[in-house]
Specification:
With about 350 residues, this protein is mainly alpha-helical. Helices cover about 65% and strands about 5% of the residues. It binds fe (ii) ion (2 copies).
């Protein structure tokens, strides 16, 4: 089986991949720390304090350590992986370590830059969790001799500036979709242990509860500031929902071998993740995308075909390759715009914000 991911053959390749700034690669963010400092969570104080108490309890303190069986299983796994699966799995690990570390860097910067005690405390806890997650993935990359230089990445990767409200929409979604992705994989491999081709997946259940709680934190911040969920901001919410879903869909469809190895089909897996994320995000967003609309499904497929054509054009190079890349960019933007204009489903927000990770 062929794979669409760029091969990673050395630690330098892994770091270069983590550093890359493309439409599909995880980004690093910076923001307006002064505005962040003025965020007030008083309207959700009771739920907030209960959440902070959970962070203080730190029930995953002992989780991100590799046991003896891990090393053994990882060694066996490395020997067994087919070349296509190996490349897709490496691509998965590098993009995961980048997005985990992206959270760590952002939350650490916010913690250092604000004196608002609520935010400072929260950001410290979330940075603690993300640094464990990133370190844990990186140790699996190191088994392949492909560890990413995270300190170097922090210095060299480009940062995208987002206003605080965009940070809230984007990180809320990436935390919740992260939860949905990890739990869907965990449940699948729980049912089919013979499909678990690497021990890291055994860690996903307790791991994704951290991501769920991080998402809860942003849900409370947004619900404490309801103007961020009304009026023209609904257009931004719609934009971020679509951008996050479309990016995931296109990226996952470049990894057919990895999903197949787990007994999953990339499309079914992604729609399961969309469904979970839609169900959760009703706690905070007044609208969800209509993921069952035939035009939505067709548009997502079209984005994948355009991404594949853009890759082929890039590989071809020259004037024709360049012209084809421009045509793909235009077609991609038009498809995204059509998806954006599809009808959405609106609903009222529940009184109680917090949810349990029940999937
Ligand atoms: Fe994480
Ligand atoms: Fe997280």
């Amino acid at each position: 089986m062929t794979t669409a991911v760029t091969p990673i053959a050395s630690a330098e390749d892994a770091t270069r991949k983590a550093e890359a700034s493309t439409l599909l690669s995880p980004r690093f963010y910076t923001t307006d720390f002064g505005a962040m400092n003025r965020i007030d969570v008083a309207p959700v104080r009771a739920e907030w304090d209960a959440m902070i108490a959970e962070y203080e309890g730190d029930n995953n303190q002992d989780h991100f350590q590799r046991d003896a069986a891990f090393a053994e299983e990882a060694r066996e796994s490395l020997a067994r992986l087919s070349p296509a699966l190996r490349q897709e799995f490496l691509d998965f690990l590098v993009s995961s370590v980048t997005s985990e570390f992206s959270g760590c860097v952002l939350y650490t910067e916010i913690r250092k830059s604000v004196d608002n005690p609520d935010l400072k405390k929260l950001m410290g806890f979330m940075a603690r969790d993300e640094s464990r997650h990133a370190g844990f993935i990186n140790s699996s990359l190191k088994d392949f001799g492909l560890g990413v230089d995270l300190g170097g990445l922090k210095r060299t990767k480009r940062y995208t500036y987002f206003k605080p409200k965009y940070i809230f929409y984007a990180t809320y979604l990436s935390e919740k979709i992260g939860y949905a992705r990890y739990i869907t994989i965990f449940r699948q491999l729980e049912r089919h242990p013979d499909r678990r081709f690497h021990p890291i997946f055994r860690w996903f259940e307790r791991w994704c509860n951290d991501e769920f709680r991080h998402g809860e934190s942003f849900a409370l911040i947004l619900r404490a500031n309801p103007h961020l969920l009304e009026g023209a901001n609904k257009l931004w919410i719609r934009f971020f929902l679509l951008a996050v879903y479309a990016t995931m869909y296109v990226r996952d469809h470049m990894r057919p071998a990895m999903h197949e190895a787990m007994g999953l089909n990339s499309t079914d897996y992604d729609y399961r993740v969309f469904q979970i994320t839609n169900d959760i995000s009703r706690q905070v967003f007044p609208l969800t995308l209509d993921i069952d609309h035939p035009a939505f499904r067709a548009g997502m497929e079209r984005l994948c075909r355009i991404a594949a054509a853009a890759d082929a054009a890039k590989a071809r190079g020259g004037v024709i390759g360049q012209a084809r890349r421009i045509a793909c960019a235009v077609a991609g933007a038009a498809t995204f715009a059509r998806l954006y204009l599809l009808p959405t489903k609106s609903h009222a927000l529940p009184e109680q914000v917090r949810m349990a990770p029940a999937w």
